[in-house]
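Lab meeting, action items carried over

1. Structure of the three-component assembly. Owner: GW. Status: complete.
Input record:
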Amino acid sequence: MLTLENVGVRYGGVDALRAVSITVETGHVLGLIGPNGAGKTTLVNATTGLAPLASGSIALDGKRIDGLPPHRIARAGIARTYQNIRLFSALDVRANLAAGAFARPGRLTPEELTTLLQRAGIPHVDPAAKAGSLPYGDQRRLEIGRALAAAPAVVMLDEPAAGMNPAETTRLVETIRAIATAGIAVLLIEHDMTLVRAACDSVVVLNFGEIIARGTPSEVARDPVVVEAYLGTDAGALA
Amino acid sequence: MTALADFYAKHSRLIDQIGVNAILALSLSVSLQAGQLALAQAAFAGIAAYVSAILAMNAHWPLLASIIAAMLVSTVVAALLAFPVRRLRGVFLAIATIGFGEIVRVFANNLKITGGAEGLSGIPNDATTPVIYGALALVAIALFFLSRTKFALAVALVREDEYAARGVGIDVGAIRTLSLALGGAIAGLAGALYAHASFFITPSDFGFPRMEQILVWCVVGGVTSPLGAVLGAALLSILPEAIRFLADYREISNGIILLAVILFAPGGLASLWRRGVVRVRS
Amino acid sequence: MIAQQLLNGLFLGAVYALFAVGYTLVFGVLDILNLAHAAIFTAAAFAAFSLALAGWPLPLAFLAAAVLAGLIGILLDRVAFAPLRARNAGTLVPLISSIGVAIIIGAILRGIYGVDEKHFTTGGLDAAPVIHLGMVTFTTVELAIFFSAIVLMLGLSYVLRATTLGRRIRAVAEDRVAAALLGVDLERTIAATFFIASGLGGAAGVLTGLEYNSVTLDMGGPIELKGLAVIILGGMGSVTGAVVGGFILGAVETLAIAYGLSPWRDAIVFGVMFVLLVARPTGLFGKRALRQA
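Predicted assembly:
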């Protein structure tokens, strides 16, 4: 269980995040939505130790992780994917998955490799293929596979459906739900409301660094405050 | 058989040089594999050369002991250097390490114990060809086995994308320090051997021109395998000798080869070899 | 005494600045550390020597050598950098290919001129009239060198600030993609940048050769490395920084010599550079995010 309590992050005099408190439970998919620049990726960066907290605390299963260096937070059980894919593109698929499993003792077995590819939804991919040579959608899924390879407690997906067509997005829903069912707490940042509706148990809405609404996806979509926040950007997408 | 012995007698100095150069190239390849253009190997080698020479001449230490002591010193220096440069990347790391090398050179030029600009002479000449090539073999084998460990995977990940590497739990700072220290150790070995294979050493043996040479060997040979570094050092050490007919122009070959490799075979000669192997198999 | 030292520092610094300006210009525009800059510096000095030997008056030889250096710079870009740009090779690979070109230039110079030191036999350099001005003394040659350097740097400043080409260069330095989108001809602008940068570096070479009346194969070595210290001090990519840094370095060096620290002066220079890199990598005037290069 991941808990952010009253988290604040400042970038050069501006509050990128202010008094943010959220909880992501094991087996639960929490959606994080909001207009561009609302602070969603900042929240993920703060959680993974890439951005220092100005205030508040972050805890994993009761243990404080804020202030720890990023690699220690990763080892504590937090894995993520990146808004702009950050695969080790020159290395092959196997190496990327082995990278994900780096912090775990021992090496990645062929069975684990196959399982990971399945869970990530790319069972057909050649483990010896260069990661950068994969089609875009497969690369995004490989990133998910890499995150899963760490056997994490928490997985944070930063816009995993970006650039995917509706068919691929629908398949992604199953992948994400399966991750949660396997006993992982999932935080999903997304702009694609179809995906959010289908995959998330609950949703938190961020705007200008603050939480402006929480609830189920349908509750949140009807919330006038949320609609207003999106007006001028993506109002249609909420419908 | 006597033809071989004659050949050796005529070229023993070059053969020894190639062995030492190969070890130097290997020391840089370790840093390059971690994505760090840390250009301090020549300085590390120089420090070790002087330590080893001084211990051998002034304190009469035997060869092995003086080499090990020298390697220890160069490794510690490298590990210490890693700390202030830990946040530097790319060109800035390169410049900082070049600066470090220059500072070392100035000290060697001015201290009495290093013999100043004239250096040290009369170093016991006991690093024979078998010793040098034995050391080279040891380093190459050690690096080969290292390449199969998780450390090697971590090094590759840090090189490819250090943010993502942190995200999978790798302590990037520790990896960078370790790879610099490893490079320092191997460079130290090369430096100590150099001292014991030459009659004298001077500060200018370990300055920036030498560092550039080592870089050229590595790039030409290819960084991602020990074979590459050795190939590059061997080829580029032999070539100027082999084309003596070009007289004063002969060093042009190294420049042309370097450019050719960068433009047409960026993985270095070792990658061509591997490419060749793949073609043969299929 | 101190006035004389400062004047010496000024003269030395002017040439450092001229050399460093070329370094930093290429870095500012292309993010490349051009390690062939010193080889071009040396080549220009030899070219001026040959021209002077052939009877050309020194000022003409100087100009011709600088122009030649500029042309070599354009060639350098075509051969060693442009192909790498085309395949997006990053910033460290061009550094290494510049070493390749430096080796080639060095080998050619060695083949043509041999390893002996050359001297300018014309122009009366060794018997130049000495001027006394209050507490300081200098030769007309030193003065001419100083003024040449200043004029060239002022010229560069004018070009960068007030000409279309200068604006294009600054645009490409600022954001290559945006500049291209705005219609700037990248390759021509880059070629022009190299012509200017290498021309100035070559000019520095000729001036240095005249200053000490000595042209040798390895005359580029010390200044190549000191040049690094200058651009770090002044801020990578900042022309003003390179100028200011060059003068500061000249001053630091001459003062070190004056206070008896001459054998250690390089260590002082590089020590300061190292500390700067670790503590304030942007230097005096630099704006770039240096750490994630």
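2. GW to write a short summary for the group page. Key points so far: Chain B touches chain C at residues 37, 84-85, 87-92, 94-96, 98-100, 102-103, 105-107, 109-110, 208-209, 212, 215-216, 219, 246-252, 254-256, 258-259, 262-263, 266 (CB under 8 Å). The longest strand of chain B covers residues 120-121.
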